[in-house]
Design a protein that fits this description.
The complex is a heterodimer. Chain A is of the alpha/beta class. Chain A has two domains: about 1-80 and about 155-230, Rossmann fold, CATH 3.40.50.300; about 90-155, no CATH class. Helix content of chain A is about 35%, strand content about 25%. In chain A, helix 3 packs across helix 4. Chain B has one domain (about 55-255): MetI-like fold. In chain B, about 80% of the residues lie in helices and about 0% in strands. Chain B has eleven helices and no strands. Chain B has helices at about 10-25, 35-45, 50-80, 85-95, 105-115, 115-140, 145-155, 160-195, 200-210, 215-240, 245-250. In chain B, helix 8 runs parallel beside helix 9. The chains are: A alpha/beta, B mainly alpha. The interface between A and B is medium-sized, with 27 and 23 residues.
Chain lengths: ~260, ~260
């Protein structure tokens, strides 16, 4: 039995005013091992985010079984943390206040969560910004805070929904390297949604390609590049091979809307 | 807080024109007295204790109506935002009473509660209540759904979600409602004091008019303007301190 086990997951969204229900996800089965880094790629609207919210316990599958560590997912849990593309920090809290939000809710003692937040601030490289408010930070820094906030609950699963999608290309690359480092220190299972194939290959142990709606798993590619991975690998023969393989697979899924020809 | 000196220009310009028009003898002084005379009258009224007394009476009425409106408005607003059932129950009633002119209720309130302070406080309550209520509802309902998901994934339960995410997040909008209502309180206060009263700033102005003492009328108006301005000024400072984070993320940051 794997750590995260999705078994024949199907999700339909009921239509408004008796409209037909849309099938968002069709029959996904996916097994993820503990401390594995999984990247999920696929066309927009294929149900990646919905699948992630189900793993988080914030959406319920219509059919199918979802277990984590052999226990069925029934609702949100501090063991599963999410990082969103939009950062979603609490704007009225400082960097430290944001990071300490989870442990404080869960009744951790002040002496302990203060120590924890200091450690996390160091881990994500935000020393000196503890007392800043989110509006004082750049996009990359905001996302570092969001990652630290997610890690503060010491989650066993870290869910990331296009976390670097709102960042510029250069910040994005350095965040990828940072994330690899953070993941190697924090040791947790990561489910990472992205639109960037090279980002997926660089970070993940396995890249899972989803088909367009209704979403299902089209390909599951193990990335055999040694860790820690470096920038140089981006141009290696092996890296390019994976890139070609995955791109071809996604191109098949690219559907040109019929309306374009009308 | 920095105050730009250029902000004093338009009121000073206005006063100068006023003084000029009256000095030139363009109008009779009982019709429009010169500002210097108005200020002299005002000073005498302050020294005699008249202005402090009426201001205190007015403020007492305004504060009672306002504070009750704030408590009930925020409380009911949170309940309505929380439950669709409660919303469906109250919404039609709210929408029927809200557009009604506050003063349409005056005859019936005078009939029920007499012309004393109770009626006045209820009138002020009515005019303050709806901006506070509607802003509270809008503030809570406007919270980003994904921010709630983020808080839930961090372990927030229902109560924590309300106290630590929804209410702080809605606070700028709620405070805006509270600030709008301070002006509403002042407006309805003066109106109702003019209708029937033997004290308060509204009474002071209408009573002076009845005896054609224009200087006292203007003196009363200046006090009302100063009081209204001071209250809003204080409200603005409280707002900028309470939700500093919001002032900095919105256009509001440009203003003191």
């Amino acid at each position: 039995m794997s750590f995260i086990d999705a078994h024949n997951i199907t999700k339909t969204f009921s239509g408004r005013n008796g409209a037909e229900a849309t099938l968002a996800i069709a029959d996904i089965s996916l097994a993820i091992g503990e401390n594995e880094f999984i990247a999920l790629v696929g066309p927009s609207g294929c149900g990646k985010s919905t699948f992630m919210l189900m793993v988080a316990g914030l959406e319920k599958p219509t059919r199918g079984e979802l277990t984590i560590d052999s226990r069925p997912v029934t609702g949100p849990d501090q063991q599963r943390a999410i990082v969103f593309q939009e950062f979603l920090l609490f704007p009225w809290k400082t960097v430290r206040g944001n990071i300490e939000f989870g442990p404080r809710l869960n009744g951790v003692k002040k002496s302990q969560y203060r120590l924890l937040s200091e450690e996390l601030i160091r881990l994500v490289g935000l020393q000196g910004f503890e007392h800043c408010y989110p509006y004082e930070l750049s996009g990359g820094m905001k996302q570092r805070v969001a990652i630290a906030r997610a890690l503060a609950n010491k989650p066993r699963v870290l869910l990331m929904d296009e976390p670097f999608g709102a960042l510029d290309a250069i910040t994005r690359e350095s965040m990828q390297i940072e994330l690899q480092k953070i993941w190697q220190q924090a040791r947790c299972t990561v489910l990472f949604i992205t639109h960037s194939i090279s980002e997926a290959i660089f970070l993940a142990d396995r890249v899972v390609v989803m088909s367009s709606r209704p979403g299902s798993i089209k390909k599951d590619v193990a990335i055999e590049l040694e860790r820690p991975r470096t920038r140089e690998m981006f141009t290696s023969e092996r890296f390019r091979h994976y890139e070609r393989l995955l791109k071809e697979c996604i191109w098949e899924e690219e559907q040109i809307p019929q309306a374009c020809f009308a | 807080m920095k105050i730009a000196y250029r902000k004093f220009f338009s009121p000073l310009f206005f006063l100068l024109c006023w003084e000029g028009v009256t000095r030139a003898g363009m109008v009779e002084s009982w019709f429009l007295p010169p500002p210097m005379e108005v200020f002299a009258t005002l000073w005498a009224m302050i020294v005699s204790g008249e202005v402090p007394y009426h201001t205190a009476v007015s403020m007492g009425r305004a504060a009672s109506g306002y504070l009750v409106a704030a408590a009930v408005g925020i409380g009911l607003g949170l309940l309505i935002a929380w439950s669709v059932l409660i919303e469906d129950f109250f919404d039609p009633l709210i929408e029927l009473i809200r557009p009604l002119s506050t003063f349409a209720l005056v005859p019936i309130l005078f009939l029920w509660f007499g012309v004393g302070d109770t009626s006045k406080v209820i009138i002020i309550f009515k005019s303050c209540f709806f901006p506070i209520l509607l802003n509270t509802i809008a503030g809570i309902k406007g919270v980003d759904r994904k921010l709630i998901l983020a808080a839930q994934s961090l372990g927030a339960n229902g109560r924590q979600l309300w106290l630590q995410v929804l209410i702080p997040s809605a606070l700028p909008v709620i405070i805006t409602g509270l600030r709008i209502s301070t002006a509403m309180a002042m407006m309805s206060l003066v109106g109702v004091e003019m209708l029937s009263s033997d004290s308060g700033l509204g009474f002071l102005v209408i009573d002076a008019q009845r005896t054609f003492d224009t200087r006292r009328v203007f003196a009363g108006i200046i006090v009302l303007s100063a009081v209204g301005f001071s209250i809003d000024f204080a409200a603005r400072i409280i707002q900028s301190k309470a939700v500093a984070w919001h002032t900095h993320t919105s256009l509001g940051g440009k203003y003191p």
